[in-house]
């Protein structure tokens, strides 16, 4: 939270709130081990990690939460996700893009919404291509002036006091502030138009039927 506030105060008022959809459960064990092998060169360590990662397939029934993904409730899962996402961190650092990440939750900051969308396009494609993961459509938003929720708090900007401040999230709310950019907007006008068209067709059918009956008489 302190780092987020520091970045906002340094003059990067736009933020991209990102969240990976079911990261632990969706991340394939095979992909995770491949990424771990590229980062960790100690063979005994890799063998130990492998035995823990594949535990759900051969372990006791009480531990078999997922067969495809990682342990959703394992303390090791966060470390594995961190290692798998290190390449994205490196890309952001190399391009001098300020960000804060905790496991699979990001706050990525920029000077305008257009560059934010460029970051999004790269990250979305990288996650799908390299890890087979997708972003959560309802938790991905461009934010300005109001940020989060991120790690149990929102960040708000007060025009009156000209400062950013933390506001704790109440009731476990997860809906992000800002403009959702992956979720398709509700097409209310199109739905209304379809409804009007159906009514028009129905009334036309009734009118044609009455006219036909009069003609027959």
Task: Walk me through the structure.
The chain is α+β, with helices and mostly antiparallel strands and 217 residues long. It is built from nine helices and eight strands. Helix 3 runs antiparallel to helix 4 and helix 3 crosses helix 6. The radius of gyration is 25 Å and the shape is extended. It starts with a helix and ends with a helix.
Please compute the radius of gyration using only Cα atoms: 25 Å
Percent range for β-strand residues: 15-25%
Question: What number is the mean pLDDT?
Answer: 82
Oligomer: single chain
Amount of helix: 40-55%
What low-confidence regions span 5 or more consecutive residues with pLDDT below 50? Answer: none
In total, the number of strands is: 8
What string gives the helices and strands in order?
A: HEHHHHHHEEHEEEEEH
* Biggest β-sheet: strands ordered side by side in the sheet: 2-3-1-4-8
- Using the alpha-carbon principal axes, give the shape: extended
Helix/strand-derived category reads alpha+beta
| Largest sheet features | 5 strands, antiparallel
Distance between the termini: 81 Å
Secondary-structure topology with pairs:
Blueprint: H1 2-9, E1 14-19, H2 23-26, H3 29-39, H4 43-53, H5 55-58, H6 75-84, H7 86-94, E2 99-102, E3 105-110, H8 113-131, E4 141-144, E5 146-150, E6 153-158, E7 163-168, E8 179-180, H9 188-216
Antiparallel strand pairs: 1-3, 1-4, 2-3, 4-8, 5-6, 6-7
Helix pairs in contact: 3-4, 3-6
